[in-house]
Give the backbone structure.
Amino acid sequence: MRKLLLLLLIPLLTGCAATVNLEAAPLANDPACAEVSVRYPSGIGDLAQRYTNAQATSAWGEPAAIIARCGLEPVEVSELSCVTAGGVDWLVDDSQAPSYRFISFARNPAVEVIVDSEMASGVGALEALAGAVSKIPASKVCTEVTN
């Protein structure tokens, strides 16, 4: 009887949010990504961090409004516009707006952040993640920053 009661309580104890299925970035096993991942915040704004099934990734919100993946190839030259948030330079890909893709500039490995701007603030997400991402040193800064 005790086992049956425990089995019935497990769903209540683990919460309702399902694991977010993500794909790990190619360089996700880089030790720098471990340094970043352990520093991801437990919340961004009013969005709680969620479990993911891929190394060096995280997500916030139900449904996921912000996704972060560490382990992309570094980018040091790009035609994309660049913004600075929280002391970190980010390239901005708005080709899928209102979903915006931000890539850390000149950090090896790079970190990608995808924000659904209808559910979360891009600037708020980048500022919240800057403390973690800044653990990867930048090799240079954007020469043309748009704020």
